[in-house]
Each structure stands twice: as C-alpha cells, then as structure tokens.
Design a protein that fits this description.
Largest sheet: 5 strands, mixed
Distance between the termini: 41 Å
CATH class of the largest domain: Mainly Beta
Number of domains: 2
Shape: globular
Strand order of the largest sheet: 12-13-14-15-19
CATH superfamily of the largest domain: TolB, C-terminal domain
CATH topology of the largest domain: Neuraminidase
C-alpha cells in the first residue's frame, strides 16, 4: 500500500466510475462517523493500494492477495492492521490460496490506517470490525515502529550521493522486501534480486517492474520457519544457483542445514525456473548470534563453483547454551568451498581456511581470487584476503581465524578465550590497505576500518574510466555496533587498486568511490559497464538509530570519455 503520485491524474479522471465501483453502501444517517471514515478510506485506498490489490480489491496473481471477501482479514483483523503499519514479508493464505508477495509498511497515520481498513472491510464483506485510530495505535506499539514518527524517519529515502567526475547516478527501483544479492547475465536488460527469505525477483530494467520468479514454496526440502538466503549467481547456461541456510531444531543440537539449489528450466520470458536441490550438508548451529552461514556463490574461471562458508563463532568461543554445540569451528565453517557443477553428487572441497565471514568473493583480471570478510566484535580490522586454491594432494592455506585477526602478532589475545594456534601453522596475511581511505587514522592496516562490514565485491576490468580501471570496488555495509572513536564507518563504496609486492604481500591504494549509502550489501557490474548498487535499507548512518525498511537499487554509469572506452 504505497502512495503513488502517478495515479493522481488517473484518480481525478475516473473518480465518478471508481466511486460507483467501490461504494460501501453504509448509510451515513445510521452511522455518520463510520461513513465518514469509509469515505476518507476510499480515497486513501485508490491512491495507496489499488495499484497492487486492484480497484475492485480482487488482487492479482499469486503476489497481491484479494481484499474482497478476504478470510484473512475476517479471521485476523489485527494482523491486517499489523501488515499496514509494519509490512508483511511472510507467505499467507487468503481464501484457500497461498500468496508470496512482500508488502512494505504504509506511511499512513493511525486514523488513515483505520479509515482505509474500514473501507476495505465494510465495502468488500471482509469482516465486521470497526477500527479506530486508538486500535491502530495499540497494534503499532507492538511492532518495530511503535510510533508513526519512527516509521516516517525510517521510511525516508536519503538523497542520492554525488558520483565521482565522469559518472552519473540514478535510482532504478525501490525494493519490495529486504534483499541480499544481485546477479544477471551481464547483458543489462534485467537483474535478478535475491530476497533474504528465499524469494528471487526478476527486475526488468526497461519497465522497472519486479516479477517474483522463485518463492520459498518452490524449494523442495525447506521445512524450517527460519530460512536465510545470502548467495545467488547465474551461470553461462542462464541457470540460477542459490545458497540457503535453515535453522533446524533437533537433538542433541540445533543444526544449520545448508542447501544449494540449481534451476533446470526457463519460462516464456527466459527467466530461470524449476529449482532442484543439488547439494546438501550441515553443521551444528552457531553458539549465539554468530552463525554467519553460507553466503556467496560464484562460478570460477576454472568452471567450478566457489562458495563462502562463514564462522559459527565470533572469535572461537564455546558458548553456554545447552542445545548449541560447544565445539567451536567445524571443518566446513570459516572457509571457502569448491564444488564441481557438472557432478550429480558433488564433493565438497575446502580451498581456504581461517576466513571468518567472507560475504563476497571475486577474481581480478589475472585470475587471482580475493574475499572481503567481516571481523569480530573486538576492534580488529576487517580483511581482504587472497585465496590460492591448493593443488591436488596439498592442504588449503590458512588465513588466521580464530587464532589471529588481521596481521596482528600471534601473541596478541583479542579475547581471553582466543585459542592458541597449532604448532607450525602458518598464516596467509591479508591485503595491506595503504589508504588514504577505508583505514584508521593510523595507517596502513590490513585491511579496512573495524566494523565497517565489507560486503559486495566487483572487478572493474579494462573498460572503465582510467581512474577506476582494473580495480576492485567494495561496498561496505556499515557498522552495527559502536565503532572505533565512536564514529560511523562504512556506508560507502571504496575503490582498491592492488599491487603484488616482491615479498608476496598484496597492497591496495584505496579511495572512496561513492558515499553515503543506505547499507550497500551487494554490487553488480554488467558487460556494458553499468554498476548496480543494492542498498539493503535507507538510513546512511548508525548513530541516528533510525529503523530499517527495504532499500533500493542504484545505477552508476560512466559518461563522457569513460563511456567512449566501454
């Protein structure tokens, strides 16, 4: 139920017809207050809701449920209020049919919410309850946005950041739900957008229309209510691969069950469909809030799939919850996997260990694999690591976690429980950030400011403008706890020009490409040189403590001399 300025002229032109089509029939003489509420609600419905639920309230497809004679509203009127004031992202059943669409919170005052729902309920036989602003306020107080003012602060999209010289920036689309990844075939016609709860949308870049092509019920084997999806990629055959984590209750321990799905067909529009369960494994769920799970999945230049598996601890602690395993990291956590996409029964191979939580991985122009990883709650720098897969028969290299963070000496104990490294275990040290950006006041460090949460990672290649050519772009999600010196950090995209030193270490000259942003969680670069930035939410800092609502997708284009070189 989002207000759409584009319908204002349409409303004025068709208002006589609309009024007849959605007349509630309530007698003003018998209940003048309710009649006035319905009258106000009718106008609010047309302006805010009809584009999705249709002017007759009968909904559309399996995305937008009917409000006409809705058993959901009849049986759950308070849930109807909650959906309007706080949004709805779970699957629901309406009149015997499942609906998978996501609805953001509506920017309506308490009386306006009461009015629009009174209109819907009384006009389309969807219950008998009569709502007031007081009833709406009582429900709102139980949500993530207990007052309208808090919702309004979270709902505001911030101004677009100023792009560097030689680039333009524009807003492409506002998200229907929280999203974690972008992918495409590189042609610049559509993006695939991964929602955090197993929905994939196709976004037509010409029309800016989202179409859900995969929903949770399409994925066989998902049986837990707690599902998180953090990785998606499209291969050369336009098959979609997706990583899924689900928290499964069980004995003796709760499990993080990992699934990788692969689509097997395409619909009439060329979108990937019919996902099948291709790979499955699992491990004991993390000791607390640190079960990072499996996230990024990418097709390597060697034709193999690479997958990032995050840690189940913050820094090697054992935890103290009886049904959560105390074993620390497992053989398949805090590492990078490799699998053969051609195999019917793929074997998991670990190609790097000791990487705490690499949200993204990608290759430079020479085929070197890098990851960007989130550090611990302790004030250790976030890392960018070079991953060199082992040759047959060799053990994978170790990057330090949980024994060592960044390139601090092994003797430094970040926590009292930091385990002692096994004898003779050598670590591959992270990339050295020489600045001037993305570092502490004291530089260089390895690699980014603590708590800045590096996320999306792309390689610009030779076709971008000279200042940003053959470099990595890293989106930093931003701090989630108080950062060093109590300053917010991240909320930006950095540009890193890497150099391989004679002593084997990698260094980076780092500059800011784009800031501030609403927690950029992923980046995607198409063949025509356009960069897409996925903003997870809307606030561009941590200090404001503004609540979270779904963000948007931005497009950054090279222009002028840069465009001519593409």
């Amino acid at each position: 139920m989002n207000f759409n300025k584009g319908v204002i002229a349409w409303i004025g032109l068709l208002w006589p017809i609309i009024s007849l089509a959605i007349d509630s029939g309530v007698d003003p003489a018998k209940d003048p207050l309710l009649a006035e509420s319905i009258k106000r609600g009718r106008a609010l419905y047309v302006a805010n809701c009809s584009m999705c639920h249709q002017i007759t309230g009968r909904g559309s497809g399996t995305t937008y449920p009917p409000l006409y004679q809705s058993d959901f509203l009849k049986d759950n009127p308070m849930e109807g209020i909650r959906a309007v004031v706080a949004g709805l992202s779970r699957e629901i059943s309406v009149n015997g049919k499942p609906y998978h669409g996501q609805m953001p919170a509506a920017l309506l005052q308490d009386q306006q919410v009461a009015d629009v729902l009174n209109f819907v309920i009384q006009t389309w036989d969807s219950g008998t309850i009569q709502l007031t602003a007081e009833k709406v306020a009582a429900i709102r107080r139980t949500t993530s946005f207990p007052t309208y003012d808090l919702l309004a602060a979270a709902a505001a999209f911030r101004p677009l950041p100023t792009p560097p010289p030689g680039f333009t920036i524009s807003e492409i689309a506002r998200l229907p739900d929280f999203a974690t990844r972008l992918t495409s075939d590189g042609k610049g016609t559509r993006l695939y957008v991964l929602g955090q709860n197993a929905t994939v949308w196709s976004l037509d870049l010409a029309t800016k229309i989202f179409t859900p092509i995969l929903v949770r019920s399409n994925l066989a084997g998902l049986h837990s209510p707690d599902v998180t999806t953090l990785g998606v990629t499209l291969d050369s055959e336009k098959r979609l691969w997706m990583t899924v984590n689900q928290r499964v209750e069980g004995q003796p321990y709760i499990t993080n069950e990992i699934s990788i799905y692969r689509t097997t067909q395409h619909d009439a529009s060329g979108n990937p469909t019919n996902p099948e369960l291709w790979f499955k494994t699992g491990y004991p769920y993390g000791v607390g809030p640190y079960n990072h799970g499996v996230s990024d999945i990418r097709m390597g230049k060697d034709g193999l799939l690479y997958v990032s598996s995050g840690s189940r601890t913050d820094g090697g602690e054992t935890g103290n919850v009886p049904n959560l395993s105390r074993e620390g990291e497992t053989d398949i956590t805090s590492c990078v996997w490799r699998l053969d996409p051609k195999a019917e029964h793929p074997k998991l191979e670990v190609v790097a260990r000791g990487i705490r939580n690499a949200y993204s991985l990608n290759w430079d122009g020479d085929g070197h694999l890098f990851t960007v990883s989130n550090g611990p709650d302790a004030d250790a720098p976030e890392e960018m690591d070079i991953v060199t897969p082992p040759i047959a028969g060799e053990s994978p290299e170790h990057h330090g976690f949980p024994y060592q963070f960044s390139d601090a000496p092994a003797s430094k104990k970040w926590y009292p429980y930091t385990p002692k490294a096994p004898a003779n275990l050598k670590f591959v040290l992270p990339v050295i950030n020489e600045g001037p950006d993305g570092v502490l006041k004291k530089q260089p460090i390895s690699t980014f400011t603590p708590h800045s949460s590096p996320a999306g990672l792309v390689w610009t290649g030779p076709r971008w403008p000279e200042s940003y050519r053959n470099a990595f772009l890293v989106g930093r999600f931003g701090n989630l706890i108080r950062a060093v010196d109590d300053e917010d950090t991240g909320f930006d995209v950095l540009c890193l020009h890497l150099e391989h030193r004679s002593d084997g270490r990698w260094t980076a000259k780092t500059t800011t490409f784009l800031t501030p942003l609403g927690r950029p969680i992923d980046l995607h670069l198409t063949d025509n040189g356009r960069l897409y930035v996925l903003e997870y939410t809307r606030p561009t800092n941590f200090k404001s403590q503004a609540g979270w609502l779904p963000g948007r997708i931005l497009e950054v284009r090279p222009v002028g001399d840069g465009a001519a070189k593409l």
